[in-house]
Amino acid sequence: MLEAAALLELPVSAVRVLAAGLVDLSLVLARAPIPPAERFDPDLLKRVADGLRALKHH
Amino acid sequence: MAYAPSSTTSGSTTSGIHLPDTARELVKILIAGPFGVGKTTLIDSVSEIRPLHTEERLSEASVHVDDLDGVREKSTTTVAIDFGRISLPGGIVLYLFGTPGQERFRALWDDIAYGALGALVLVDSRRIDASFDVLGLVEESGLPYAVAFNTFPDAPLHHTEQQLRAALDLEPGTPLVTCDARDADSSLDALLALVQHLIDRDPPEHR
Question: What is the pTM of this model?
Fold first, then answer.
């Protein structure tokens, strides 16, 4: 929702109303979000660190 | 209403604005700090999407609330949150939430902190005491954090790391780095210091 608002340059509240309308009309499929990554998974943290390093100097 | 010109939309193939289908893991890091410390700037410098700012012009009404001493040129302030996104190789998507330092937003903290890996606390060495509220909030929330001094051009250089640590009452294990929030690599380094801290404090246990 936040991302859509950022891309559309609209207030989040407006996008929320818009999205609700689209869901009502079955034009948008609402599904459960990807579950948040488990906290403190060392493997995940390492991959985040590797990813950040890979992003530098480009 | 402002829409992005179509030329830039069609030409933006390098860093797509839409999430790749491979994105499977979402992680969240908070960028915390007092008013005017550069949270918005840092998120701007590393986010691949044009960050969402819920920012308003500073008005007369906030003159007595938001202390502008030492941040002369500031004409806008983040009312609720900034939001940015970095897609990392390997399908991880890192979300950055710039969170307000103002004590009056305390009610938002629990929601914003929920599920976050940790917090990067930005500090302005010209106004160290302005960071106390934020550090208190972060510590209360139990989030692990790292501290980054945003290097302003006229920031005093005479502080030693020891003095800064003592001023902020930091635990010996809490990372303290300096960064230039305007610079992407420098900001990534600060984020790396935080992530490395999370790795170090949480050694893999054999269970």
Answer: 0.71
